[in-house]
Amino acid sequence: MGLLHRMEQAPSPPGTPVHELSTAVLPVMPRSYQVALRPLAYFRQSEEIDSAHVHNLMQVIAREQAWTTPIPVVGDHGIVMDGNHRVRAALLMGLRYLPCVPLHYSDPRVAVLHWESGEPFCVDTIHRTIMGNQIFPYKTTKHFFNPILPTTDIPLSLLRG
Question: Has residue 16 got a pLDDT over 60?
């Protein structure tokens, strides 16, 4: 398995017979996600975390000896969309770099909802809050990515750099 993987979409619906593919009009699939390595200082925490969850993640990551879940971030600012617990785990584990998927809230593959109400969350509020050096309470936002984000298989030794 390679160090970085891109998420690719199948070009046709499941079960489409091969002989129909040459004449089928297929929807345009969104481009693949890009995975990048960034220094840990690049990542900006967006929500409070649960310390017990961080310690559980540290155990899982240490057992695997690899980083498998890149952190989706706002590409220009490093604002963590999802993965605040993983970023804290990386810090406590002494990692210097993390894989991330740089995105923007204007990207049609990204949706963000209020955790409790399920209503769309104002992304301008996210930018104002985080860039104002504040963070949201635990479980304020819930992010969805369509298609799902890619995975990685990066040895921790490379991330300690």
Answer: no
Give the separation between CA 13 and CA 20, rounded to whole angstroms: 11
Neighbours of 115 (CB within 10 A): 15
Backbone angles phi, psi at 155, to 5 degrees: -60, 135
Reported as a single tens digit per residue, the pLDDT across 81-117 is 999 999 999 999 999 999 999 999 999 999 999 999 9
Contact of 137 with 47, CB cutoff 8 Å: yes
Phi-psi category of residue 71: left, alpha or beta, with phi > 0 → left and psi -120 to 50 → alpha: beta
- Predicted local confidence at residue 32, as pLDDT: 86
